[in-house]
Structure formats: structure tokens, C-alpha cells
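Response to reviewer comment R2.3. The reviewers asked that we include at least one raw input/output pair. We reproduce the pair for SIR2-like domain-containing protein here without editing.
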Amino acid sequence: MSRKVAPDNPPQNAATPSRPPSSRHSPEPLSVPPDVSIYEILRAAQDQPVVFYMGAGLSIAHPSCGPKGTQVADKLRPFVAELVNARTTDVTEPDLESLAARVAREAPGRMADFKVRASEAAEFRTMEPNYGHQAVALLMREGVITGVSVNWDRGIENAARRIDLEIEAVASQQERLQPRQALRLYKVHGCAKRPQTLAVTKAEVDAPQGWAKAEVARAVAAGMVVFLGLGTVGMYVTEPIKDIVELWALDGATVRVVDLFGVSDAWKKTLGEAAADVEIVMGADAFLDDLLRALVADALSRTGAAVRELVDEAEWTKRMLAGFETVRAAFEQAPANGILRWWRDGVTSDQDGRAFVLDERGRETLMAVSLMASHDGGTVHVTGGEEHLTVRSEYRYLEIASMPELTFADIDRKVRERVRRGRNVGRLRPGLSVAAVVHGGRGSFPSPSAPPDIAAEDVAVGDVGSETVGDVRLVRAEDAVAGALAA
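Raw output as returned:
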């Protein structure tokens, strides 16, 4: 299969780079095509979410800089000496797993205390999210992946909070059975927020796989499992790679292994001749960057196809197509995570885990944006980068919201609050109005007269499904695709 070339002279069979990068991953612009191996994963996700089984390689990148197991072990050595009544110089176990095994043998009643200290040995709970953590949160929100992690840290959960998304760890059989509304991240080696769930011995590492397999088996079916950042050994304890692969591939799932230096000896031993066919030689951040670009490019392509199906003799259909092509070109130099956030951030939380940009709702909202951009004329400006990307014409910002469970009055209030926050952080500058395209909503939207300077000549005033109050205007996406939009 096609894949990227590994760096020159890499360490043999390294699980992760010897040092984390010194700066956060800088995503490529949308114009850079993703590696062709990515499209197979995206195609698989159209049938059911792809399972991402994530390891240490995800959390090692800057600014997270997740610690190595040996670093955690060194911090715990004096405490282990206290627990087993030995001198620190006599506690010579080389790694966390062997330290835990000694505590289990010599002071089994203190294992709970050992796990608490282990959870505090690094910034596992408050970990600063890196690019990969944010990308995983975005992909989970869009319903593209189901997340399974062997990492203790809360990097993904912390990244999710920054996009107003709730992702909660499920780290035990008991937690699996509890009703939850948040998206679930299955953490098979435990979560630092709940120290007693941590797997620190080989027996504990082997135990949790069964419940995790049972929970996500429906998502796997005959789909795909991507092992991401899972090298020869885990960050803290040894990963039983052979057992994991057998467990996750029972139902004929397709396996892919993403690693900066290719499949390790442990993977080769497990996969045999198939190893070369399943590897994707990329680091976690670069792989996730490529996947986001492929996702956004596919969503734009599908939207363009929907616009072209509408084009007929009506002038507004031609304007929509011209506007879409202008917007699409403006996205070329923007990062995919920024585009995805602009397109998706205004969708209410009850839609978390469901497709939007690849769904009809996402297409129709962008079609409405395209029509308004065409009516405004001039250049479409896409600025702001990853976290604060904005799209605007010469006259106004163009935003997107989807709140199908709310009434018009509630949608109006929430959109205005979002605009207020955007102005406060400098994402939306004063002096330019905001047109927010809304998809869905309960009840009827008011249809007052459109502003005369942007009203389409061939559309009756009474057909405009929009509301203008102050500097924020709500526009129904459904009106745009039905030809009833005045601007």
C-alpha cells in the first residue's frame, strides 16, 4: 500500500521518537493533498466509525510531552522504598511495571497508594493538549472514529473541552455500565482522574481488554481498527500486541498500524507477511492532519456536487455555484482543523458523535454561505488559523449553526451569545455584521423584509426566512436550497 517514507536513519524498531518535538505540530493547508492511504480509512468511516486504538505516540508530542515510563518510575522509586521498607538504592527495578510488581509482592495492601502516586507523577490530569489530541476530539465529535486509548492522561478530554465538547473516560467494567450522555473514550489501562482504574501490572494490563472489546464490537463489525502510536511497548507497561490484534480483528476487521518508523519487530512477529501491507509510516500528528484534510476535502467535494445538481436556468443557482467555488478556493490555504471548527462548532451538543459536514445538514449550510458570498460579491476572506478561523465577505462575517431541537427564539439567543464571545476574543472584529446560517429549529422562523442592499431582485420579500436584529442576522439554510433566500 502507498505510505510516506520514514525519516533517514531512524532508530531501529523505535516506538516513538527519542525526544518530543520542540513545538506544536503546524498543520498543512488544505491545498496539500493527504497521503493516499488515508482515503481508505475515510471510506471505512462512512459505514461505521473507525476504531482508533491509541498509544503513547499520541501524547508524546509538544506541548503535552507525555513522560516515559522510566521517568515515572524514577519519580516513584523513593515512595516504593517506603512501601516495601527498603533503601532507595535497593529499589533497582528498571521500569514502572516491575516496580508495581514488587509492590504487589511485598506490600499488596499498599497498591492503592502506589496507584495514587503514579497518577500524580506527571501532569496526566491537566495535560496540555497537543495537535493530535485536538484532532481526535474533532474526529470523535464528527462521528468518524470511536476512541480507545491505553494512555492514562486526559489530553483528549482536555482538548474536547476547548471546543465545548464533553468526552468522558470509561476505564472499568462498572463505568461501562453507567448511563452517560457524553461521548465515550474507552481507556483500557485506566484514567489518571480515577487512580484505582490504572493498570500497572501485567495481570491488570491483560484484564480490561475484554470489556473494551465487548463495548466497541458493534462499531468494529467488519470495519477497520487503526493502531496509532502503539509501538513495541507501551508508555508505562508492556502491551501484549499479539493478544490485542487477535482481540480486535476477530470479526474480520481491517487492521492498520500507524507509526513514524513503521511496524516494529513485535508487530512483524504478530502480523507476519501482512506487516508490510498494514503499515502507514507516519507520526501521529501528521497522520491525523492528513485525515482531517481528507475529511474536509471530501465534505467540500460533496457540497460542490450538491450545488451542481441544483444549477438550472434560475439565476440564484448560478450565483450559488459561483459563490461555492469562491469559498472553496479561499479555503485552500487554511488548515483543515480550523475549517472543520468553523463549519461544526455552532452545532449543538445533542448532535455530538453524529456526522454534520458530511451530512445533508452540513452541505446545505455551506450552500447557503456560498449564495450569500456570491450576493455580496468581491473577495471571500478566510483568516484566523486553527482555533479562530473566520469566513467573511467584504461586508459581513458568515457563520454556521445547527440547533434542530431549539425554537427560533432560543436559536437567536444562542447565536448572539456565540457572536458576543467571538467579539470578546477578537475572532469577530467590531464594525462588521454577522450572518449566521441556521439549519433546523422547531416552529416557524419570522420572515421580515430583507435588507434592501442585499436583497435578490428575483425573490419575493415575504419568502425570506431570516431575521435581522442589530448586527446579527439569522438565515435558514433550507430557504437557500429552496431558492427563497433573498441574500
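Confidence is low (pLDDT under 50) at residues 4-18, 448-469. The first helix runs from residue 37 to 45. Further pairs are available on request from the corresponding author.
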